[in-house]
């Protein structure tokens, strides 16, 4: 039987001074906001073919142009639930698993994440209960689940270099089979910016 897997993109609404704050010294408020918008747009254009449904979760009110783009690409636009990042992810995963056999959660910080990577995540999720896409900085860029437990989301150091390791420790505590995808990089710090050019992403400095 074919398993249905839904894709959930979590993103911050692009607002100057509020997004990509670690990049503001290099890009300025407007430049960091422009980068956030560009990365979200790129994620919304990812291929749809391996997913039964796709949901775009914005964290702080609608953004007309992003909502329009999302709907044009067949995403269902939602407002993120309340709580810290872990609680929001837990709630979104629980809602997704109520409707489909598996969920894949991604953010917009990883421009190297492409359709092939998503397809590999879905393939891994057919064999494992959990799949993680590791990030070079010690976090993760993708989380795929066929079941859920609050332990995977509570009291974790989101944004730290220990996140992936601690998540794996908790999966071992739960006794759940999990798989790791190839390591990718995300865009959080000024030293990440030159790599954008390799993907054909050009930024105007402000």
UniProtKB/TrEMBL annotation:
A Pfam family that the UniProt record links to this protein: DUF2064
InterPro entries named in the record: Nucleotide-diphossugar_trans (IPR029044), Trfase_1_rSAM/seldom-assoc (IPR018641)
Protein name per Swiss-Prot or TrEMBL: Glycosyltransferase
């Amino acid at each position: 039987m074919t398993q249905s897997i839904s894709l959930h993109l979590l993103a911050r609404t692009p607002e100057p001074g509020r997004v990509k704050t670690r990049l503001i010294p290099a890009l300025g408020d407007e430049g960091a906001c422009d980068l956030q918008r560009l990365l979200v747009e790129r994620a919304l254009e990812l291929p749809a073919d391996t997913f039964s449904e796709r949901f775009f979760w914005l964290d702080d009110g609608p953004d007309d142009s992003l909502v329009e783009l999302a709907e044009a690409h067949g995403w269902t636009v939602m407002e993120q639930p309340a709580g810290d990042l872990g609680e929001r992810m837990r709630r979104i995963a629980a809602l997704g698993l109520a409707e489909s056999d598996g969920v894949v959660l991604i953010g917009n910080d990883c421009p190297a994440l492409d359709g092939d990577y998503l397809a590999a995540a879905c393939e891994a999720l057919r064999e494992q209960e959990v799949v993680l896409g590791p990030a070079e900085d010690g976090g993760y860029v993708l989380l795929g689940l066929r079941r859920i437990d609050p332990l995977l989301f509570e009291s974790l150091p989101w944004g730290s270099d220990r996140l992936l390791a601690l998540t794996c420790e908790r999966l071992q505590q739960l006794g759940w089979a999990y798989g790791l995808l190839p390591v990718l990089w995300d865009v959080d710090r000024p030293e990440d910016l030159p790599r954008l050019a390799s993907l054909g992403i050009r930024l105007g400095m402000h």
